[in-house]
Design brief:
This protein is of the alpha+beta class and about 425 residues long. The chain contains 16 helices and 10 strands.
């Protein structure tokens, strides 16, 4: 591998010069490569790095490299062949088309560097990269992290194909203080708050009191089992055990109404049912819409899903929220100001909680709260199992601050008396 100076004269008689790195890589038995630089120091730096890569057999010349957009197409195709959920593949495709390609798409894989990745993150955070509507919009820290993870996965796929020697995104990530980064993200995300993220006991009482009609069974089940929306939608009658009084979570329905396995191995679980839910489901089973079959179009139909639409098929998540949960909160007066006034200058109110996950949060808090406060007072491991979390760490990260503290005044006084051997705290 050599670095030499090249001088030439253009057709217009202008003399130019450049520094050329001349080397042979190991592709196709040894192919000569030339790469030009304006400065000698840049050429020398490239030669030093390339020589190591050539010796290790991982070098990819710029002329043989493909663009990041093209590598993204390979990455998406591989995700589809691997049978990833459609929602996951769609999320990857959105990250590629709406965020990565607009800024890095025309760049060759071999030209991507750690400073470029860092600059890309900064531009996303500032909103310099246009969004899907062509308008600059700052991405949230959580979205920037997801996009960076997708970019790293894209480059890893290209690395496995021999299209690039190293993953600069992963190298950049390794240099960061991961613990400090996680703590910063946790601080920014903040703790779940009762009355803000988690419905209060009074709000749940009001909601339960206002429940009626076809939405009563599913929302009541959501409140007292903590099942995810996808798990509720995919729940079958064969998964409801009335004798044992429990629900078995064995499958879920994604946002494209495709049935699949739970999110993790821990997601497959059994959840006990309180009497109110059990009796409600018994009544609902009689009125539950049945799915018609082609072999018996005029027959009574089959009872398949516990919470189907009117045709007995999978219910849409948006319908449950917009037609069930949101109107229910307004009827129960669990509302908040929408920030606008009507024609009579009266404040417009809307549902306080916008998603079903608020009910899952409530169930977690109900499992954690002390019995004297109306909770179940379950240990952390039992809460993890009820929620179907993949690890106890996830449960504690999200809900750890809700667990009762054992250092209140009376208990401290008892511990003090025991330590000092004093029968009466006022004794001298």
């Amino acid at each position: 591998m050599s670095v030499r100076k090249r001088v030439w004269t253009t057709s217009k008689g202008i003399e130019k010069e450049a520094w050329v790195v001349d080397y042979v890589d190991k592709v196709e038995g040894g192919k000569r490569r030339l790469k030009s630089f304006e400065k000698k120091k840049d050429a020398a730096a490239y030669a030093a790095a390339a020589s190591v890569e050539v010796r290790e057999g991982v070098h990819t010349a710029d002329s043989a490299s493909i663009t990041i957009a093209k590598a993204g197409e390979f990455w998406i195709a591989m995700a589809e062949r691997n049978g990833l959920e459609r929602s996951t593949v769609e999320a990857y495709r959105q990250h590629l088309n709406l965020h990565i390609s607009p800024y890095l798409g025309t760049l060759k894989l071999s030209q991507l560097s750690a400073p470029m990745v860092r600059e890309f993150e900064d531009k996303l955070a500032r909103g310099d990269v246009p969004n899907k509507d062509g308008e600059p919009k700052p991405r949230s820290p959580a979205m920037v992290k997801k996009i960076r993870t997708s970019l790293s996965s894209l480059i890893s796929d290209a690395q496995e194909r021999g299209l690039i020697s190293r993953n600069v995104v992963r190298d950049l990530r390794a240099k960061r203080k991961r613990g400090a980064e996680r703590r910063a993200e946790k601080r920014q995300r903040g703790k779940l708050k009762i009355g803000t993220d988690i419905p209060t006991r009074e709000e749940i009482r009001a909601v339960v009191g206002a429940l009626a009609g076809r939405w009563r069974p599913i929302l009541l089940t959501a409140i007292f089992t903590g099942l995810r929306s996808s798990e509720l939608r995919g729940l079958r009658w064969e998964d409801v055990d009335f004798e044992r009084g429990q629900i078995s979570v064995r499958q879920r329905a994604d946002r494209f109404n495709k049935i699949g396995a739970p999110k993790s191995d821990s997601g497959e679980r059994s959840v006990p049912l309180p009497p109110l839910v059990l009796n409600t489901l018994r009544e609902w089973k009689i009125a539950c819409p049945r799915r018609q079959t082609t072999d018996k179009p005029d027959g009574p139909g089959d009872l398949v899903y516990v919470f189907p639409n009117g045709a007995g098929e999978l219910e849409n998540h948006a319908n449950i929220v917009n037609r069930g949960f949101v109107p229910l909160q307004i009827a129960a007066r669990v509302t908040k100001k929408a920030g606008k006034n009507d024609a009579d200058r009266r404040p417009i109110v809307g549902a306080k909680y916008t998603g079903l996950h608020a009910l899952r949060h409530f169930y977690a808090s109900w499992c954690i709260n002390r019995r004297v406060d109306g909770g179940l007072e379950l240990p952390a491991k039992a809460v993890q199992e009820r929620l179907g979390h993949s690890s106890i760490v996830m449960t504690m990260d999200v809900y750890g601050h809700l667990f009762p503290r054992s250092d209140d005044g009376s208990e401290l006084a008892d511990a003090e008396r025991s330590l000092l051997g004093i029968r009466d705290i006022n004794a001298t």
